[in-house]
C-alpha cells in the first residue's frame, strides 16, 4: 500500500522533527509499513537517504542502536578545557585587574588587562610556553570568560558652573 501525497508530506515533516536514532527508527518503521523493507523504495517515495533507512532497519533487526562518534571525537576543545590549571590562573589574574560594570545592569566585568599583558603574566606564573594561546586567541578567551577588554570607566568630574550669589 503506497501512501497518498498528503501522507508523504506528513511523514517527511514528522521525520524532519526527529534526530539520530529516533529518526532512523521512525524511518525504518515507515519503510516496513509502506516500502516492504526496501531502503531504495523509501528513498524514492519519501526522499530520505537510503543509507539512513538501511541503518534504521538494521538497528531494528538487531536491537542494537548505532552511536556515532562525532560528538566524542569531533571538533577542537576550547583552551580552557585543554588547560584547566592555566585557565584558573588566568581567571585569578583577570580578577585582580577587573571591576564591575558601573551601571550594575550586567554581570560583565571590565578589565584593564590586555591580551599581551595576560600572556606575560601567565608566563610569570609558570605556565608553559606550549600551553599559551596566540595573542588574538587570548582576547577571545578573556571575552568568553566574561571579561571585556575595554577601558574602565572612571568617574567624570563635575563641570564648573557659576554659583548663585
Architecture overview:
The structure is a single chain. With 165 residues, the chain is mainly alpha-helical. It has 2 domains: 5-62; 79-148, no CATH class. Helices cover 55% and strands 5% of the residues. The protein is built from 9 helices and 3 strands. Strands 1-2-3 form a 3-stranded mixed beta sheet. A hairpin with an 8-residue loop joins strand 1 and strand 2. Helix 1 packs antiparallel against helix 2. The radius of gyration is 29 Å and the shape is elongated. The model has no long low-confidence stretch (mean pLDDT 86).
List the helices and strands and how they pair.
Blueprint: H1 5-17, H2 20-34, H3 39-46, H4 50-62, H5 70-73, H6 79-82, H7 84-96, E1 98-100, E2 109-111, H8 115-124, H9 135-144, E3 147-148
Helix pairs in contact: 1-2, 2-4, 3-4, 8-9
Biggest pleated sheet: 3 strands, mixed
Total helices: the number is: 9
Spatial arrangement of strands, main beta sheet: 1-2-3
**C-alpha-based Rg, rounded:** 29 Å
Terminal CA distance reads 99 Å
> Secondary-structure element sequence?
HHHHHHHEEHHE
Low-pLDDT ranges: none
Structural domain tally: 2
- Based on helices, strands and strand pairing, what is the structural class? mainly alpha
What is the arithmetic mean of pLDDT? 86
Q: Let me know the number of strands.
A: 3
- Percent helix, as a range, is 40-55%
**Fraction of residues in β-strands:** under 5%
Shape verdict: elongated
